[in-house]
UniProtKB/TrEMBL annotation:
GO MF assignments: translation release factor activity
Domain Prokaryotic-type class I peptide chain release factors: 225-241
Family: Belongs to the prokaryotic/mitochondrial release factor family.
Record keywords: Coiled coil, Methylation, Protein biosynthesis
Protein name, per record: Prokaryotic-type class I peptide chain release factors domain-containing protein
Coiled coil segments of this chain: 36-100, 254-281
PANTHER family per record: LD18447P
A GO CC annotation given for this chain: cytoplasm
Amino acid sequence: MVSPEETQKEYDDIIKKLSDPELVSNWGNFEELSKKKNYLEKIITKTNELQDIKKRIEEDQTILNAKENPSLIGLAESELSNLYNQEEKLKNELNNLLKREEEPRIDSVIIEIRAGTGGEEASLFAKDLFRMYSKYAQSCGWKQRTLASRLGDLGGYKEVIFELSGSNVFSEMQYEGGVHRVQRIPETEKLGRIHTSTTTVAVLPKPKKTQIKINPSDLKIDLYRASGPGGQHVNKRETAVRITHLPSGIVVTSQAERNQRQNKENAMTILEAKLLEKKEMADQEELHEKRKTQIGWAKRAEKIRTYNFPQNRLTDHRIKKSWKNLEEIFEGKLGIVIKNLRANL
């Protein structure tokens, strides 16, 4: 753990940098340093408060050990209980602040939702998850942008890829990646039988410009006409874009927008996120080999959650916890679930 002296030194260094007139012209660095300064200020304040409490506890304990003044002993005893509670509270607050520093500072993520097993019911479930995340994002004040989508025959999503941007978006959404399973009676089921379907979710950090460099000569770009449900063409012009990254074999598409330029930008955003994920997973795999233990990324194939509609229950299998308010959760009230995941994973 970083010492208070090191934290103070880092804070003082940032203050000096922020006073440099040349830094103001580089808004990205200025904004990053300002966020760091505000974060360190909170740590320094909590650390100083904790040190003051510890000093008062030591003073009261000295009075108790001396056993000289009965009136002071009574005051010290009554004060100590309150001081211990304050100390514990400040320790927890400081630990939470330090834990935040360990999390990657990512303000934009790319989320992919893909229908898995279950045919059209899986596509409808993918649409439900997209709506759930959209409503949660709205409640958090995040910005949302759809990058690509493929509709199913019944109005669900075979695939939808979208970007969320805002404060704490990665730390809030990072545990949503994996296989989501739904158990319910589909709209198309005439005999009232419960079906089980799955949808996969991937949460990819959106790379900063400096993180991923793509050589234009490594790209194969194809243009085609956008299509709707059932494969029918919905646009006479070739506005849809398919980009193949030749070295990795990764293929991405976008037809969410009406113009070719925006679809190309969206496809490049998806490609950059996929390349960053590929790089980070390779790094994690190398680390895994060195440590001989599984760390880091959850596998996408891992079944993380079941939504049981007949029992009105959501179960997260990683923390073995269930909630009984499915309807509210699908209306975007995911906060209680995410809070538990962040505390226990």
